[in-house]
Amino acid sequence: MSERADKPVRITVDGETVEGLEGQSIAGVLLGSGRVSWRETAVAGKPRGLFCGIGVCFDCLVTVDGVPDVRACQRRACEGDEVSSQ
Ligand code: FES
To answer: Ligand 1: which residues within 6 Å by Cβ?
Structure first.
């Protein structure tokens, strides 16, 4: 039996350290940490998170290292990323 080659990756989400696996999307890391929503709609304040998972709907937007409107389902999580909800 071989050992898993997965390597951990640590990001911060709204200041909290969250661990995922190298190669996961930010959305994958967020879901793995138990989060199902991480932004609110501008007008109605409704919760949004992962919807399409393929970069089409823009429901999963987050700010990464100060850059707003990053699609969490399309951005690979990198060690030390600072993610904040929008
Ligand atoms: S979940 Fe639809 S663009 Fe990310």
So the answer is: 50-53, 55-60, 71, 73
pLDDT tens string 46-83: 999 999 999 999 999 999 999 999 999 999 999 999 99
DSSP 24-55: -BHHHHHHHTT-S--EE-TTT--EE--SSSSS
- CATH number (3.40.50.720, 3.20.10.10, 3.10.20.440, 3.40.710.10) of 8-85 reads 3.10.20.440
Which atom, in ligand 1's list, is nearest to the CA of 73? Answer: 4
pTM: 0.91
